Amino acid sequence: MTKKQGLSVSLKNYLKEIYILESMGKPVRVTDIALTLGISKASVNKAIRGLKEIEYIYHEYYSTIRLTPEGKAAAVEIWEAYQAAYTFLVDILHVSEDEAREEACQIGHVLKKDTCHKLQILIKEHE
């Protein structure tokens, strides 16, 4: 498996969720991710194995999940793309928050870093 550019949308979502949960200062467990995303623990465990294989997370069986420095960098990039897309949709296009959450998730996965940066500049200019 390759690094961030080769991550599936699903693995990007897991990485983003781990980042969000970690940012809240709570220990991250498979159960937490399953509950937040509304999916089975088995699905989360499969994704965790994939993220561990590419060294984006630290995880021992039945232990907490933590992002590696490389995993955190990738997660931050994914989160920032999501946030930029969400803010653009809500604040500039006046899309409803529910629609924006769904669409920003999709848009965020395809935004390149440079495009995301330009979108962030546009948003700041609009404020």
Low-confidence stretches: none
**Termini distance?**
40 Å
Number of strands: 2
CATH superfamily caption of the largest domain: Winged helix-like DNA-binding domain superfamily/Winged helix DNA-binding domain
User: What is the N-to-C order of secondary-structure elements (H for helix, E for strand)?
Assistant: HHHEEHHH
Can you tell me the CATH class of the largest domain?
Mainly Alpha
CA radius of gyration: 15 Å
- Biggest sheet layout: 2 strands, antiparallel
**CATH third-tier fold name of the largest domain:** Arc Repressor Mutant, subunit A
CATH architecture of the largest domain: Orthogonal Bundle
Note the beta-strand portion: under 5%
Number of helical segments? 6
What overall form do the CA principal axes indicate? elongated
Give the total of domains. 2
**Major sheet strand order:** 1-2
Describe this structure in words.
The chain has two domains: 4-70, Arc Repressor Mutant, subunit A, CATH 1.10.10; 74-126, Orthogonal Bundle (Diphtheria Toxin Repressor, domain 2). Strand 1 and strand 2 form a beta hairpin. It has helices at 9-23, 30-37, 41-53, 69-92, 97-108, 113-126; strands spanning 57-59, 65-67. It is mainly alpha-helical and 127 residues long. 31% of the residues are buried.
Write a compact overview of the structure shown.
Helix content is 68%, strand content 5%. It is mainly α and 127 residues long.
Descriptive key words:
Diphtheria Toxin Repressor, domain 2; mainly alpha; Arc Repressor Mutant, subunit A; 127 residues; 2 domains
